[in-house]
């Protein structure tokens, strides 16, 4: 199948999913359901790409299975964490701003924008089933990046969930396990997962180099847009110890924490690690 046609099909699928999800959010009065669809949306895109491919290869099937494992784990974790707790405070704050037609705002800014980002980020996944793929020396590198990233995400989420379930942890900061080396092991893991998909794409065909815009956009979102930068504007207000944690711990890439004397001179507003 022509790649341009496949990209158009996926754009329509994503638009249909986001429009349906938006209508459900109006009924539930809960825009945060968009977060639950984030991981699963890539599963949908990957399977649509595979099923519309003329003759999907074994490598295309393997990539789709990896995406399914990653996306379903993320969607399941977010559903377990969020369902039954009402709308996320981020969306509630948006809803309460005066003079705003929130229904239209959420369609364009929340559901529409997320759909566009999802479609762009997934470019390596959309391209892989169209390639006459065969294993190359880069293929194991892509698989290893995916495995390390998936492990970081899964273990980081597990450690955080276990920490939050302990009543004695209320108001405290998790700085053990993977969180001892990076303030956001789940985001770093996500970054590696998408690097893995990209490396798989170019390992099958170097002409897929241009799909780097997908993982690049994901990295931007994780580090500066909706991930680290957004989250760390809010956490210090709830956990006074977090400013000190910022000073001594790498923001994104895992790194041994700085000694207390050195940490005192580090800016608490640094989002990308300087060490």
TrEMBL record:
Short name of one Pfam family: DUF1295
The entry's keywords: Membrane, Transmembrane, Transmembrane helix
Gene3D superfamilies, A to Z: 1.20.120.1630
InterPro entries: UstE-like
Example of a GO cellular component annotation carried by this entry: membrane
PROSITE patterns: S5A_REDUCTASE
Tagged with keyword Repressor: no
Transmembrane segments: 6-24, 36-55, 61-80, 101-121, 133-152, 187-204
Name of this protein: Uncharacterized protein
Species assigned in the record: Blastopirellula marina
């Amino acid at each position: 199948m022509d790649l341009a046609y496949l990209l158009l099909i996926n754009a329509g699928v994503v638009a249909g999913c986001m429009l349906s999800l938006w209508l459900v959010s109006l009924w539930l009065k809960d825009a945060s359901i968009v977060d639950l669809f984030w991981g699963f949306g890539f599963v949908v895109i990957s399977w649509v790409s595979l099923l519309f491919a003329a003759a999907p290869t074994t490598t295309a099937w393997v990539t789709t299975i990896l995406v399914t494992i990653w996306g379903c784990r993320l969607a399941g974790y977010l559903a377990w964490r969020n369902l039954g707790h009402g709308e996320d405070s981020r969306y509630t704050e948006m809803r309460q701003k005066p003079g705003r037609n929130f229904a239209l705002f959420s369609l364009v800014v929340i559901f529409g924008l997320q759909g566009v980002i999802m479609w762009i980020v997934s470019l390596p996944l959309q391209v892989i089933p169209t390639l006459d793929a065969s294993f190359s020396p880069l293929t194991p590198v892509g698989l290893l990046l995916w495995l390390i990233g998936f492990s970081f995400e899964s273990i980081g989420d597990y450690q955080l969930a276990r920490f939050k379930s302990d009543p004695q942890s209320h108001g405290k900061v998790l700085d053990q396990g993977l969180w001892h080396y990076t303030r956001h092991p789940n985001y770093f893991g996500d970054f590696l997962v998408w690097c893995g998909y990209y490396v798989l794409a170019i390992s099958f065909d170097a002409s897929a180099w241009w799909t780097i815009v997908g993982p690049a956009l994901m990295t931007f979102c994780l580090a500066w847009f909706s991930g680290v930068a957004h989250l760390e504007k809010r956490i210090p207000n709830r956990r006074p110890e977090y400013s000190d944690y910022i000073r001594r711990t790498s923001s994104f890439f895992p790194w041994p924490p700085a000694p207390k004397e050195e940490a005192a001179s580090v800016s608490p507003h640094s989002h990308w690690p300087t060490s």
